[in-house]
Write a structure and sequence with these properties.
It comes from Candidatus Nitrosacidococcus tergens. The chain is an alpha+beta fold. The chain contains 29 helices and eleven strands. The two termini are 57 Å apart.
Length: 638
């Protein structure tokens, strides 16, 4: 049976252990994407969450929630209480997409990807590498005679499952929709959004867009790549080609289009495609062959042991070597002149030239030997700072008595309990044997596959083929399918991936912009859309999606037009001096050409160069907005 084969393959994957470095780098990279998005949400909180910025204010608890969310993202990056931080992140991403306009009106194009990944981060052992949780474990479980080393490997499934679920199924579903899109059939799928002023980045890629054959080759290769990814990403022979092509694909999105958060989020996954040997080679290449500094410490002192463990944890370059004084003193004649009490009272070190340092000077040399925090060592050497630091060091060192250390030498180095947290204990208690884990993972994968098929067949096949049924049973099945998709969308991030297809660009032959008339009659472009028609930084990602995908479309909806004109002018107007008690903005429009069936040279630059015409005014009076369009303009017919 297929189920038995799947379960067997999963069990084999659980048994195969691989380095955790790539998974840890993925956690850090993805955490940075989350953190920048929270900063973005906080900066645009008034535009996104207020009904009318600076006029009708949303609940201030949103600001507090964003702060908590940001702290959780930082914890995730640092690997501190990692599983708990992942849970908080998942909770906030689900809550914000369900209950705020963040997704409905300001869809960044990757919310469902972030929900899907956030859910998987609850279960992936990303804390095993490059994390403060590793340091906590070392401090909790080490003794003066035995320094604990946390697990440095993980199951290969920790790499394969995220690639299959969050990337492979996304690519496959997106590919189904592309097969029905004329621009992708004609090899223009990459070229079309790159000639639309609303979608292009500040980097002029026109030189690349002018190679018709290359554009068609890239478009057709993307269709093939997205289809085969989920079937070949597990094989070692394909890892490097997939890594190169996939990274180039998403770097191209980052450089060409202004939806960089989506590009970076997808790019983060390619950390999981880096061959395991590469991570080992990178580590070997970065580390020093021989430590630059040797530190002698009191093996029977918990404080000294904690210091050694902490510095060794952060010394990724292997610049510092710690040696127990009791076991290694005889190997270093440079310190033989010191009495035992002198050696136990201070932290002594020797550099590669045999020069001896002690106390505060040892810490300065440690920071310099670690290289990446050498500036801290230089700063501590500054007169004044050095003397203050030396005074603080003496206070701590002189109060550390041998009697206290001797009493604690048989204890753990941490006075806290050895618990790794509630979530970790729950995993440990219910993880079960390898066979049980394989069964659970197999059932989960089948569930995810069925939910994805529901989305892909419903919207990628039936909807695209315009298959409808008038029979009662067919309508009932359709309603059930929609309800299932609603739940899987909200909590697992499963959604149709029909981005930038013909049904969005067809008839999109106009774009709008806004300017402000100051008190002396001078016209100023809002820091929103410039004279070229490009959305300016930081109005990318969600804000670009709001304007280009919701407010201004091939067939403009009057209600949405009024709503988002109000939001944009109320948000950006006061930032350039407009008073919402009495101010006037100009609505400008220009024509653009977005062909779906043929390629045209220099069309990006031609669209940018099109002239603007004034089509109406936005009048704010006593914080009430009114739009007055020219008599010949019907906004819904644009």
């Amino acid at each position: 049976m297929l189920y038995q084969k799947l379960r067997s393959a999963i069990y084999q994957g659980l048994q195969k252990q691989v380095p955790v470095t790539g998974l840890a780098v993925f956690r850090i990279f993805f955490g940075l994407v989350i953190f920048q998005e929270i900063i973005f949400l906080y900066y645009f909180r008034s535009l996104i969450f207020d009904p009318t910025p600076n006029v009708e204010i949303a609940s201030p608890t949103i600001h507090l929630f964003l702060l908590f969310w940001g702290i959780a993202a930082l914890f995730l990056i640092l690997g501190y209480r990692t599983r708990f931080a992942a849970g908080v992140n998942y909770f906030f991403w689900v809550i914000f997409t369900i209950f705020t306009p963040m997704w409905r009106n300001f869809d960044g194009g990757f919310d469902q990807l972030m929900i899907s990944t956030g859910f998987l981060l609850l279960f992936l052992p990303t804390e095993r590498g490059l994390s403060l949780d590793n340091l906590r474990a070392k401090l909790s479980f080490s003794t003066p005679k035995n320094h604990y080393t946390p697990p440095q490997t993980t199951s290969v499934l920790s790499y394969y499952l995220p690639l299959a679920i969050s990337i492979g199924l996304v690519y496959l579903d997106s590919d189904i929709h592309k097969l029905f899109a004329p621009q992708w059939q004609n090899g223009l799928g990459v070229w079309v959004p790159a000639i639309m002023p609303y979608y292009i980045s500040a980097i002029n890629m026109n030189w690349l867009l002018n190679f018709e054959g290359l554009q068609k080759l890239i478009s057709h290769s993307i269709v093939i790549f997205e289809f085969i990814f989920i079937f070949i990403c597990y094989f070692r022979i394909f890892r490097v080609p997939i890594l190169i092509y996939g990274s180039a694909l998403h770097l191209g999105i980052i450089f060409t289009l202004n939806i960089y958060p989506f590009g970076f989020a997808m790019l983060a996954y390619y950390c999981l495609m880096v061959p395991f040997a590469w991570w080992r080679n990178i580590k070997t290449w970065l580390q020093f062959g021989n430590p630059k500094l040797t530190v002698l410490y009191d093996q029977n002192c918990p404080l000294c042991n904690r210091t050694a463990i902490m510095i060794h944890h952060f010394d990724g370059l292997n610049g510092v070597s710690f040696k127990g004084l009791q076991d290694h003193r005889g190997l270093y004649p440079q310190v033989s002149k010191f009495t035992e009490m002198e050696l136990l009272k201070d932290l002594y070190s020797m550099d590669s030239h045999g020069k001896v340092y002690s106390g505060m000077d040892t810490y300065i040399q440690i920071f310099k030997a670690m290289k990446y925090i050498a500036p801290l060592g230089w700063m501590m050497s500054i007169p004044g700072i050095y003397h203050l630091g030396k005074w603080v060091y003496r206070k701590v060192a002189d109060n550390r008595t041998r009697i206290t250390c001797d009493k604690q030498c048989s204890l753990s180095l941490s006075t806290s309990d050895k618990s790794n947290g509630f979530i970790d204990e729950l995993y440990a208690r219910h993880a079960g044997t390898g066979q049980k884990q394989a069964t659970r993972i197999a059932k989960f994968l089948i569930l995810i596959l069925l939910l994805q098929l529901n989305s892909s067949i419903h919207y990628g096949v039936f909807y695209r083929l315009n298959i409808k049924t008038t029979e009662e049973i067919g309508q009932l099945v359709s309603q059930i399918s929609n309800q299932i998709l609603t739940l899987s969308n909200a909590f697992l991030g499963i959604t149709p991936h029909a981005f930038y297809l013909h049904d969005h660009f067809q008839g999109y032959n106009h774009i709008l912009a806004l300017t402000y008339i100051d008190k002396v009659g001078k016209e100023h472009w809002l820091p929103f859309i410039n004279q070229e028609g490009r959305l300016l930084a930081p109005n990318w990602g969600r804000v670009q999606s709001m304007w280009a995908n919701v407010a201004i479309t091939p067939h403009i909806n009057a209600y949405r037009f009024h709503k988002f004109i109000s939001k944009v002018t109320a948000f950006w107007g006061p930032r350039i001096g407009a008073d919402l008690q009495d101010s006037i903005f100009i609505i400008k429009a220009k024509n653009v050409e977005i062909p779906l069936d043929h390629w045209e040279k220099d069309l990006r630059n031609k669209n940018i160069a099109q002239p603007w015409v004034d089509i109406g005014k936005v009048i704010w009076s006593y914080q009430v907005m009114e739009i007055k369009l020219n008599p010949e303009i019907n906004i819904e017919s644009l």
